[in-house]
Amino acid sequence: xxxxxxxxxxxxxxASLALVAGGRVRxxxxxxxxxxxxxxxxxxxxxxxxxxxxxxxxxxxVLWGKRRLGFIMPKQPLVLQRPRDSGPMDLVLQSDGFLxxxxxxxxxxxxxxxxxxxxxxxxxTLIGYRQELPPDVPPGVPPDGGAxxxxxxxxx
Amino acid sequence: xxxGRRTSARAPLAAVAxxxxxxxxxxxxxxxxxxxxxxxxxxGKAVPAGGGPVTAEVAPAGGGAHDTGGAGGATEPEAAAETxxxxxxxxxxxxIDATAxxxxxxxxxxxxxxxTPYIFAPQPGPDGQPLSNRYRRIFxxxxxxxxxxxxxxxxxxxxxxxxxxxxFPSLSVLRARxxxxxxxxxxxxxxxxxxxxxxxxxxxxxxxxxxxxxRIAKINEELEKARVxxxxxxxxELATRVPALAPKVKLxxxxxxxxxxxxxxxxxxxxxxxxxxxGTGKHTAGVYDDAMRVAVRTFQQKHMIYESNYLRExxxxxxxxxxxxxxxxxxxxxxxxxxxxxxxxxxDGSTKAGDLVDEYxxxxxxxxxxxxxxTALAFFKRHPASDFxxxxxxxxxxxxxxxxxxxxxxxxVVDRGDVWYDLPFDDKGNFHYQTRxxxxxxxxxxxxxxxxxxLARWRTTIGGxxxxxxxxxxxxxxxxxxDVGPRVVRNVxxxxxxxxxxxxxxxxxxxxxxxxxxxxxxxNYDELGPGFLSxxxxxxxxxVVPGQNGRPDFDNGVxxxxxxxxxxxxxxDGFSHGCHRLPNHLAxxxxxxxxxxxxxxxVGDSPIGxxxxxxSEDMVYEMRVPSKGFVYVLDxxxxxxxxxxxxxxxxxxxxIGYVPKPNVKYPGxxxxxxxxxxxxxxxxxx
Lengths: 156, 686
What we know:
The complex is a heterodimer. Chain A is an alpha/beta fold. Helices cover 17% and strands 30% of the residues of chain A. Chain A has a four-stranded mixed β-sheet with strand order 1-5-2-8, with no helix packed on it. Chain A has a four-stranded antiparallel β-sheet with strand order 4-3-6-7, with no helix packed on it. In chain A, strand 6 and strand 7 form a beta hairpin. Chain A starts with a helix and ends with a strand. In chain B, helix 6 (189-196) packs antiparallel against helix 11 (313-320), helix 12 (323-343) crosses helix 13 (356-368) and helix 12 (323-343) crosses helix 14. In chain B, 29% of the residues lie in helices and 22% in strands. Chain B is an alpha+beta fold. At the A-B interface, strand 7, strand 8 and strand 9 of A face strand 15, strand 16, strand 20, strand 21 and strand 23 of B.
């Protein structure tokens, strides 16, 4: 290997290391806040809402009505900046393999919201999940042999 | 859900918007503290409650009174507005020093756009610093047509009509309404006569209109034939000669009168911008369809008419009146609440204690020179919208009764009235009506000279059979009990939040809303609160059994609270989940009165950080509740007694547990009903 070639390899390796290191630095850097306020408004009049997903899914898309606000990444929360006391934001979080979640962010002050994500297969763990009906149950008849329902009586 | 509550304005409200943007800035300060410094019969603090008539004359500080400058009004700088009050003597308006006016026995009635009732007024904490009430900003924004129920900006030109729900329009909103209605009267004699010609307009479902028309045509034919046979000149004569046909004659005559009345109603509602306008839905002439129902509901909300959403008596009466006359009634109601607040009175004629509310309101209106629509219109033309940023009027009210004091011996009694524990349906699933003759009432008593005197008594609700969601995801019936016996109210919460128990039917926890340009389903925070539509209304008192020997109070989830569901309070078959509901404005009056006449501590905002997720149609909804509301603690607590009432029917004790709904398929027997206080009645705190 010629001296010039060795020198070229060293330069390439150094550059690669610098890129990787730079990449690491970028990966750890928090995302800039999504500014959702008039440019004329002073920053002191705004609040920051930090959105985190649990478990940390690879990419969680955050929507505010029609608008895509950005992604929550595993180590990078999404920060929204809104005018203080400007009313709540109704958001939807979407991520592959999880049920979408509708949540609300308030603008009373800086706050952090950790949104629990439920895997598709675990929806039966949530309030509101309806058990499957057994086959051939006629309406109004509890499947207990047809005995009339006699409620317990008593005071509170 | 509330789509019909708002409507586009005809007139631009830029002036109102400007005034409110200024008022909102002030709303975050403590300017409202002095909202009721002067009480009737009290010259400053020198005269004991119940003192004799006040005769002091206007005594302006620093240079004497000066007039407002006549038409157009002399707008003083904002700083001056904080210290002055308007007094009207011999028809002439004068500004006087507010402190001097109070000392001279005047009561200051706050007509400012950022006024709120006492329960939402800024309150100092123990360190004297103002305590933040999260709902105050929204209350003011709603009253000024600036914000929606979530506190988000209202689209330009949109109006809130929330009197029926306890939020009266601000004076700026009423001013704009008067001026617009003078320009577009929407009232003609022919239409008014057509509407006045009927007491009600019969509701015919849109799908039944053609069938009903055929039925009436057939009866008409029958009557015409009978008339000829009887030799009667008219149908009235026929009814006299053949009494058996009188009901049919009455029916066809009523239907004949209803047709032009309905057309006149359509014309009126269209002119008022409530029907056939953008966003009001498609209406078919002559048919009481959904668009018409929503328009009528909005009209009722605008004019505080407690009727179901049909053309009933009070609604028809209001439709027949000139707009400015209705506006004057609206102004009187708005000023009434401010007078009640300024004088901190409650007696409204619902008991033998008299009607101070009416008496004081009339006195104030007379002294302000607001005696009819014409004088009110002149007042609003004289005063630009900017005057209502901060405007207090000094009036001399009659002295309050001698029993008034800073700390009164007050108590609440709830009489449950006629109570049915029986299932409302038989074993074949047929529902049966359970008649009640005596309805539940809530009475506020004051002990005066050793005797309990009822100050106010209102219809309220008790619990009944309600749908509840069980752990299997299906809805069952459950009897929601209103506890009987002695209790106390220790905590009063303004802008309360209802923590929906896990058993709350999911369908009631979701609503549709336009979010940032997209129509979508979200958690129904209207139901949770804080807000006028909340399950706890705008204010709630928590009924608890006081803890003994250092133990905490026992809370079974029952409250007496405000409610937007006025039909549940006033209808024959209305029930709650165990709580005692009052119309929001009455609940506000009662708790404002109690807080102003009992020893209390102001705790302020009560953070809770509650969250819960639930599933509906493969979407997870996460309810987040940052605060329980703004807490006042009564110390000593207010005694309460709930009377058992008359137990009707065969079942003499409440049925415990879930009962399957008739004609519903279930996956198995009912799961056990949760027995926690949270799951009972209104739902206790976490």
